[in-house]
Amino acid sequence: MPTNSTRGGYTVPGLEEEAAATLVADLQERLTALTDLHLTLKHVHWNVVGPHFIAVHEMLDPQVDAVRDMTDDIAERIATLGGSPVGTMGAMVAARTWEDYSIGRDGTTAHLGALDLVYQGVITDHREKIETASEVDPVTEDMLIAQAAKLELFHWFVRAHLESASGTLSTEGETTEKGAAEAARQAEEA
């Protein structure tokens, strides 16, 4: 399996090798997560059905493109820091700490309920890596902050479909994609 450690002690001028190695490892985690998110969003795009199909189908394509661009930025930052980004599917699957997206062909609301949880996880982890980067590298920190802003916007787009006018979220308290999908589906039918 390829490794993403820094090569030959090189990193950008003014950054210690140990700090660079930490950043490379953190960025590799983000690369894996965002690659998975990109593919999950495309999976939903292909498998969403129902009365709001076209709205959700078309809402997801810009998200897919933006997240794919984020992966490229992260991979290039890893290389800039002296690391070697790992982008092979086998290595990424072996490194991830979550299961595959669990919803197949289903209604728009069910998919959006599940995506709400996916985005929550990705954003939470991104914010943790921002904290780490803030201590050693403002360039990496800025990149991650800009990405978090877009991810949070996309999450808001998803949540807007799940929220009532009174502010109640149909998936409130759900901790699994299938549970969130079912809760969203039931709220839509009520």
Automatic annotation (TrEMBL):
A Pfam family hit: Ferritin
InterPro entries recorded: DPS_DNA-bd, DPS_DNA-bd_CS, Ferritin-like, Ferritin-like_SF, Ferritin_DPS_dom
Ranges of Basic and acidic residues composition bias in the record: 175-190
Region (Disordered): 167-190
Domain Ferritin/DPS: 25-164
Similarity remark: Belongs to the Dps family.
Protein name: Dps family protein
Biological classification of the source: Bacteria, Bacillati, Actinomycetota, Actinomycetes, Micrococcales
